[in-house]
Specification:
- The protein is α+β, with helices and mostly antiparallel strands.
- It contains 31 helices and 34 strands.
- Strand 16 and strand 17 form a beta hairpin.
- It is globular, with a radius of gyration of 31 Å.
C-alpha cells in the first residue's frame, strides 16, 4: 500500500483578501481571478504585507538578552526546597503584520462596529513604534510537525496511533471518566477485539498518549514551611512562560489578540476618549512609554506588552465528606479580546498552578490564617519568577502568525483574595491596626512594571453582584419584611429562560452569582411602594451604577452617568438607616471600591473584562472534574496527570483537524470556481467538540437568506422574517387551526373579527397602525378567509445595543390561551412601532407603544403574520406618584373602554421591536388573593421593569 504523503501546513498559501488556504500560489491566483469572487480585485490594489525590520545593531546592544531558564532561584526562596522534577508516568508562515506602519497610525475609522449605544470611534492613535515583528518564529503547526515524532507524522498524521479511526477510539477513551479497569473490560469485548486498534490494554493506551505532542508540562515541588503542618506540602505548577506562549500561539486566538496600545476618541476633534479593552486605557499606554528601574530608560522600541491576568480562589473538591480544598491559580492575557477570553469553552485561561492548602498546627486561628497567607505569596513568588524576569529584560515569543515579538510581561490584573515579622502575634496586631493582613513579602514586590493600585481590579462578580446580595437585598428584606417580599416574588411571572423564585428569597441558601443577577432583575419593582421613597431611590442608584458599569464600552458621557449614579446613592443613603435597613455605618469595603470604578475604566478599560465568572467556571473543568475522575487519593497529582493527558488530546485533535483540512493533492486543492471562500465556522466549531460552546442562532441572517430565495424548501410564507431592528421566528407548523370566531372564544377576544377587518383596511390604505380601539373598516369588509393558523410561541431577537453587528439570544414569548396549567393564559408583552420600520431604540419609547400579545396568527390566503394586542398607557416616572419618581420606573396602565373592556387591535407581527417585562404594581401591601397565575390578569397597573436585562436597561435608560 502506497504511503500517503501529507503536506506540512507551513507550505500552504493564503488569499491575501479573505484568508482562505490554498496548496500553492497558482491556486491563489486562480481563486482571485474569478469574476464572481469578492477577492477578484486586481492584485496591484492589494497592499503587500509589511515586513518588519529587525532592530538595528545599536538598539540590540542596548537591550538585555531575553529570559532564559539558566540560574536556579533557590537563593531567593529561602526555606522552599528547589528540587524540580517532572511528573513521571507508570499555518501561516506568510509574515502577517498590520498593514499600516506604527508611526502612521493616526487614522479615521469608517467601518467600526456601531450601535445606538456605541460611542462613535472618530479617531484612533496607536502607540508609535510598539510591538514590532521579527521573522524566524514558529506557529502552532510548526511545533506539531517538528517534535521528536514529526517525521513519522509525514507518513502517518495520527502517529503514535495507526489511523484516524484508531485515534478516534483512543481519544474517546482517554477523555472518558472510565477507570483503567473499565477500559480494559471494554477492550476485552469480542466486538472491540475485531477492530484494528493499536492498543489492547488501558496501560498501553496511556503509554501511547504520552507520545502525543505536549503543551506546558507539569512540575511538582516539595515545600518546607517555617511552621509545622498536619500534612506535607507540595506545590504543583507549570512554567508561566510556556503557558503564556501556549496562549499567544493558539490558533483560535489568531484574529482576536492585539498588541499595540491605542487611544480612541469619539470624534476627530479628540474631545472624548472611548474605553473598552485593556489596550485602550491609559495604563497600557503609560506602560509602553514607562521608565523602568532595571537599567532601561524605557521599554525598547518595538517591545510588546503582554498583560498578565491572574486569578486565584479556593474551591471544594471532595464530595459529601472529606473537606478537601484545592487552590487553583489561573493565567490569561489581557491582549486577548474580552468576548473571547470570557468564554470558558475557548480556554482563554490556563491552569498555571495548584497551590497548597496547608493545615498549620497552631492554637490560634488568626495565626494559622496569617501563615497560610504568607505561604500563598511565597508560592506565587516561586511560580512567577520567570514572568518577573521577562518583565525586566523581555523575552522573544511567537505570535499566532509565526512572527517573533520581543515581549514584556507586566501584571495588569489579579483577582485574589513596622514590627518584627517573626513575632507573629505582635506583627499581626500592628498589621491589623493599619488594615493589613500581615503578609510582609507580597509576591508582586519585585515585579517590574506592576503596581497593585493598577492590577488589583474591581471585580464585578464579587464586588457588584455579591455585594448586592450581602447588602442591598438584605436591606430590602429587612425593610419590607420576610413574608411580604417572599409573597411578592412568588407572584411574579418570569419570562422563558429566567429564574423564578416561587418560595421567595429570604430563606435562600448557597446563593450563586447567577442567583444574585436574577434577584437584581426584579428587586426594585418588587419593593417599590412598600418602602420609603428615599430608600427606593438609594437602591435604584446602586442598581443603576452596577448596570452602567457592565457596559462593554465607555466614553466621557457614560462615565459621567456612572459617577452621577454613585453620587445619587450617597445623597440618599441616610434613608437606609432611617428605614432600619442597616443599623450601623456605611464603612463597607466593597462600597468604598465603587469610587474607584470610573478611574479604573480610564486606566484599564471596561470592568467586565476582569470578571471572575469565567475563572469560577474553570474551577469545574480544570479542577473539580479531574479530581472526581480519580480515586480520591493524591488529588493534585491526579489532577495534573488528567489535565496533561487532556491537553495532549486537545492539541493533537486541533493539529490533525487543521492538517486534514488541506487536500494532500495540489491538483484537487482549490476549485477555481469556488465562490464559498469564507472561513468554515462549522469546522472551527468541530475542533471544540470536547467542550462545545453555545452558539447563538442569528435569525437576521436566516431571514435575509429566506428573503433572497436561497432556501427553496422553506415553507411559504417564510416563518423567519426581520426588520432592521428585530428578527422574528415562528415554528414551521402552527400550534392550532380554527375559525376566527372559535379563536375569539378561546382567547376571550370579543372584538377579534372587527379588529382583523380594521388591520386589513389600514394595510390596504397605507395607514400607520395604532391601538386606539376605534374601528375604521365597515362590518361588510370582505376578508380572504374565516380560518386562521395560530402560534402560541414566538421567538424575538434584537441586535446588540452597543454593537449592531452582533445579535442577542432570541427570547421566547408566550401567547398561550387558558389551560389547566395556566388557568388565565400566559401572555408576554413587547414594544411595538406604528410603522414597519422605526428608530428604536435611539429615541427610547418616544413614538412607540407597549402592548400585551394575546394572539399570534395568520389568516389563510394571506402571507402576513398578525397579532392581536392590548395596549397600555405609558406614564413617565417624572411628575407621577412619589414611588414612581423615586424608582425611576415607567408606570403602565391598561387602556380600557368606558364599559370596562380592554382596548385592543390587530397589528402586523413584524412591528414588534423588543420584548419587555412587566411587574404588577403591588402598592404598600400585595393583595393576598393574588396568585402567580392571576397576578397579571387581575392587575391594572404595572411597573415597566427596565432592569429585566441589560439590553432593555440601556434602551430605556440611555436613550430616554
Amino acid at each position: 500500500m502506497a504511503k500517503k504523503s501529507l503536506p506540512r501546513v507551513r507550505k500552504t498559501s493564503f488569499c491575501p483578501r479573505c484568508g482562505k488556504r490554498f496548496p500553492n500560489e497558482t491556486r491563489v491566483l486562480q481563486h482571485m481571478n474569478q469574476p464572481s469572487s469578492a477577492c477578484s480585485a486586481p492584485l496591484n490594489d492589494i497592499p503587500p504585507p509589511t515586513v518588519p525590520q529587525p532592530l538595528s545593531s545599536q538598539a540590540m546592544r542596548t537591550i538585555k538578552p531575553p529570559y532564559a531558564r539558566q540560574a536556579s532561584p533557590s537563593e531567593a526562596v529561602g526555606d522552599i526546597q528547589m528540587d524540580f522534577y517532572d511528573m513521571p508516568y507508570d499555518d501561516r508562515m506568510d509574515l502577517q503584520v498590520d498593514d499600516v506602519p506604527y508611526d502612521d497610525r493616526d487614522l479615521d475609522l469608517q467601518h467600526s462596529p456601531s450601535g445606538p449605544g456605541t460611542p462613535s470611534a472618530g479617531k484612533v492613535e496607536y502607540f508609535p513604534g510598539a510591538s514590532q515583528c521579527y521573522p524566524g518564529g514558529r506557529t502552532f503547526m510548526d511545533n506539531f510537525f517538528s517534535d521528536e515524532h514529526g517525521e513519522l507524522r509525514e507518513d502517518n498524521l495520527f502517529y503514535p496511533f495507526a489511523s484516524q479511526q484508531d485515534w478516534q477510539v483512543a481519544s474517546w477513551l482517554l477523555r472518558s471518566r472510565l477507570s483503567m479497569a473499565a477500559i480494559d473490560s471494554f477492550l476485552s469485548l469480542d466486538l472491540i477485539k475485531e477492530l484494528p486498534l493499536s492498543f489492547r490494554t488501558a496501560r498501553e493506551l496511556r503509554l501511547r498518549a504520552e507520545l502525543l505532542p505536549s503543551g506546558p508540562r507539569w512540575h511538582s515541588q516539595a515545600i518546607r514551611p517555617q511552621h509545622p503542618t498536619k500534612r506535607s506540602v507540595t506545590l504543583f505548577y507549570r512554567d508561566p512562560i510556556e503557558c503564556v506562549q501556549s496562549l499567544l500561539s493558539h490558533p483560535f486566538f489568531e484574529s482576536h489578540i492585539e498588541f499595540v496600545p491605542r487611544k480612541v476618541w469619539s470624534t476627530a476633534a479628540q474631545l472624548s476618549r472611548v474605553y473598552d479593552e485593556w489596550l485602550t486605557g491609559e495604563h497600557a499606554w503609560n506602560l509602553q512609554a514607562s521608565s523602568s528601574p532595571f537599567d532601561l530608560d524605557e521599554l525598547p522600541e518595538g517591545g510588546t506588552l503582554l498583560g498578565i491576568v491572574l486569578s486565584s480562589d479556593k474551591t471544594n473538591i471532595s464530595v459529601m465528606s472529606g473537606n478537601r480544598m484545592a487552590h487553583p491559580l489561573l493565567l490569561s492575557l489581557a491582549n486577548i479580546a474580552t468576548d473571547i477570553r470570557s468564554k470558558g469553552s475557548l480556554h482563554g485561561h490556563l491552569l498555571l498552578a495548584l497551590l497548597p492548602v496547608p493545615s498549620f498546627i497552631h492554637k490560634k486561628s488568626r495565626i494559622r490564617s496569617l501563615l497560610s497567607d504568607r505561604l500563598f505569596h511565597r508560592c506565587l513568588d516561586l511560580i512567577l519568577t520567570p514572568l518577573k524576569i521577562a518583565a525586566t529584560v523581555g523575552v522573544m515569543m511567537n505570535d499566532p502568525h509565526g512572527n517573533l515579538r520581543y515581549c514584556y510581561t507586566p501584571l495588569v490584573g489579579a483577582l485574589c483574595s513596622r514590627a518584627d515579622p517573626d513575632d507573629l502575634p505582635g506583627f499581626l496586631k500592628v498589621a491589623k491596626s493599619f488594615g493589613l493582613n500581615g503578609v510582609h513579602e507580597p509576591f508582586w514586590r519585585d515585579w517590574p512594571l506592576s503596581d497593585p493600585a493598577q492590577f488589583l481590579k474591581v471585580e464585578p462578580l464579587h464586588h457588584f453582584f455579591r455585594m448586592s446580595w450581602d447588602h442591598d437585598i438584605q436591606w430590602c428584606i429587612t425593610v419590607v419584611g420576610d413574608d411580604e417580599i417572599d409573597f411578592r416574588f412568588n407572584l411574579l411571572q418570569t419570562p422563558v429562560g429566567y429564574r423564578s423564585f416561587a418560595d421567595g428569597i429570604s430563606k435562600l441558601k448557597q446563593v450563586t452569582g447567577r442567583d444574585h443577577r436574577s434577584i437584581q432583575r426584579y428587586i426594585l419593582c418588587v419593593v417599590a411602594g412598600a418602602a420609603p421613597p428615599r430608600f427606593i431611590a438609594a437602591i435604584r442608584a446602586l442598581l443603576d451604577f452596577r448596570y452602567l458599569a457592565q457596559m462593554p464600552v465607555f466614553d466621557e458621557q457614560a462615565l459621567a452617568k456612572l459617577n452621577a449614579a454613585l453620587a445619587a446613592f450617597h445623597a440618599d443613603k441616610h434613608a437606609i438607616l432611617a428605614a432600619g435597613g442597616r443599623s450601623k455605618h456605611f464603612r463597607i469595603p466593597k462600597l468604598e471600591l465603587m469610587q474607584h470604578v470610573a478611574p479604573s475604566i480610564r486606566t484599564s478599560g471596561a470592568p467586565m473584562q476582569w470578571s471572575a465568572d469565567v475563572t469560577e467556571h474553570a474551577h469545574v473543568t480544570e479542577v473539580k472534574n479531574p479530581a472526581r475522575a480519580g480515586n480520591n487519593q493524591n488529588y493534585y497529582a491526579q489532577i495534573a496527570r488528567h489535565l496533561d493527558r487532556s491537553d495532549k488530546c486537545f492539541r493533537f485533535d486541533l493539529a490533525t483537524n487543521i492538517a486534514s483540512s488541506h487536500d494532500p493533492h495540489p491538483d484537487n486543492g482549490g476549485d477555481p470556481t469556488d465562490e464559498d471562500h469564507e472561513p468554515d465556522d462549522e469546522k472551527s466549531h468541530n475542533l471544540l467538540y470536547h467542550s462545545p460552546i453555545w452558539k447563538i442562532v442569528d435569525y437576521f441572517k436566516i431571514a435575509d437568506a429566506l428573503a433572497n430565495g436561497i432556501s427553496h424548501n422553506a415553507p411559504h410564507p417564510a416563518r423567519t422574517f426581520a426588520s432592521s431592528t428585530t428578527a422574528i421566528h415562528l415554528a414551521t407548523k402552527p400550534h392550532r387551526r380554527m375559525t376566527v370566531d372559535e379563536a375569539a372564544t378561546l382567547f376571550d377576544l370579543p372584538d377579534l373579527l372587527s379588529a382583523i377587518r380594521d388591520c386589513f383596511d389600514r394595510c390596504a390604505n397605507g395607514i400607520d397602525h395604532d391601538i386606539s380601539g376605534r374601528r375604521r373598516a365597515s362590518s361588510n369588509y370582505s376578508l380572504p378567509s374565516n380560518k386562521i393558523q395560530i402560534w402560541t410561541k414566538v421567538r424575538v431577537q434584537v441586535r446588540n445595543y452597543h454593537n449592531s453587528e452582533m445579535v442577542e439570544p432570541a427570547q421566547t414569548m408566550n401567547v398561550a390561551p387558558p389551560s389547566q396549567e395556566h388557568p388565565r393564559g400566559l401572555y408576554d408583552c413587547a414594544v411595538f412601532s406604528p410603522g414597519a420600520e422605526s428608530d428604536w431604540p435611539s429615541q427610547g419609547l418616544n413614538g412607540h407603544m407597549i402592548a400585551q400579545l394575546r394572539l399570534v396568527f395568520r389568516m389563510l390566503g394571506t402571507d402576513q403574520f398578525l397579532t392581536y394586542v392590548q395596549r397600555f398607557h405609558v406614564i413617565p416616572p417624572a411628575g407621577h406618584t412619589t414611588d414612581a419618581t423615586s424608582s425611576g420606573l415607567h408606570v403602565l396602565k391598561r387602556a380600557m373602554r368606558s364599559n370596562g373592556e380592554r382596548i385592543g387591535d390587530v397589528l402586523p407581527l413584524s412591528h414588534i421591536r423588543s420584548p419587555v417585562h412587566l411587574i404588577p404594581r403591588f402598592g404598600k401591601t400585595a393583595n393576598p388573593r393574588l396568585t402567580t397565575h392571576t397576578s397579571h390578569e387581575f392587575s391594572t397597573e404595572f411597573w415597566l421593569n427596565r432592569y429585566w436585562n441589560k439590553h432593555i436597561y440601556y434602551c430605556l435608560s440611555l436613550c430616554a
